[in-house]
Amino acid sequence: MKNIIEAAWNDRSLLQNKETIQTIEHIIEELDKGRMRVAEPTADGWQVNEWIKKAVILYFPIRKMETKEVGIFEFHDKMKLKTGYEQLGIRVVPPAVARYGAYLSKGVILMPSYVNIGAYVEEGTMVDTWATVGSCAQIGKHVHLSGGVGIGGVLEPVQAAPVIIEEGAFIGSRCIIVEGARVGKEAVIGAGVTITGSSKIIDTTSADRKEYKGYVPPRSVVIPGSYTKKFPAGDFQVPCALIIGQRKESTDLKTSLNNALRENDVAV
Questions:
Q1: What are the C-alpha distances in Å from 237 to residues 211, 234, 240, 241?
Q2: Can you give the pLDDT of all 268 residues of the chain as single tens digits?
Q3: Do the Cβ atoms of 48 and 38 come closer than 8 Å?
Q4: Contact 177, 195 (CB under 8 A)
């Protein structure tokens, strides 16, 4: 399958070939059922399967625009919507939408929200109201994506890593996490934090200052911050994220964001 996808990626005329079309459609079905992933954990971190991401991109040109009616709603798009939620053990609150080709595991709850093709959402995760899970994003078990959270999608460039939220993480309201950023297990991200693949994430918990780029270590408690940067026009404050403590071992994994912040002496 990889050879067929790579060939079609380099020569789009092969998208007329029946074998190519069937291969692409098979890969999207495998993504939908969670048997394949755009990115997967390894002993050394995460591996991005670029050729699978290419298959997702190639799926668009082989699809035709169609009008679909779902109750009182009308859609005009190339992609099918995900179905069979009852059999999958997934709760979906109207008007939540997930595209076919996104994997949702048992126990996932979708409040009115959106999950795009290629995403992988593991067991017990809550996607709260108006949160979005972008294309190919990887969301671990028992994650809470609070209201209005924006998890960015990534299809091109194909070598770009997707956003990864590891298991047990709590992402506060209106956070924006994009451009291949990675949030470690059981981290707590305070409301309104923006993290990109190049964002500075500064550990303020010791005099020996540590700095990460686009990565939040496990169990970190993070709030919005800023630092001074020199520009030709003068010195200005630039956004960053601040690690202000660690989630305590005694803290229940389902603790509220407010409790996690209070434990680290942050007023809420």
A1: 17, 10, 9, 13
A2: 999 999 999 999 999 999 999 999 999 999 999 999 999 999 888 999 999 999 999 999 999 999 988 888 899 999 999 999 999 999 999 999 999 999 999 999 999 999 999 999 999 999 999 999 999 999 999 999 999 999 999 887 777 889 999 999 999 999 999 999 999 999 999 999 999 999 999 999 988 889 999 999 999 999 999 999 999 999 999 999 999 999 877 666 556 666 766 777 665 4
A3: yes
A4: yes
Nearest CA to 187 out of 169, 171, 202 is that of: 169
Angle between helices 2-10 and 18-33 (to 10 degrees): 120
DSSP letters for the chain? -HHHHHHHHH-GGGGGSHHHHHHHHHHHHHHHHTSS-SEEEETTEEEE-HHHHHHHHHHTTTS--EEEEETTEEEEESSPBP--HHHHT-EE-TT-EEBTT-EE-TT-EE-S-EE-TT-EE-TT-EE-TT-EE-TT-EE-TT-EE-TT-EE----SSTTSPPPEE-TT-EE-TT-EE-TT-EE-TT-EE-TT-EE-TT-EEEE-SSSS-EEEESEE-TTEEEEEEEEEEEETTEEEEEEEEEEEEE--TTS-TT--HHHHHHTTT---
What is the sign, positive or negative, of the torsion defined by CA atoms of 115, 196, 27, 35?
negative
Alpha-carbon distances, residue 256 vs 61, 120, 157, 231 (angstroms): 43, 24, 36, 39
Phi, psi of 242 (to 5 degrees): -115, 125
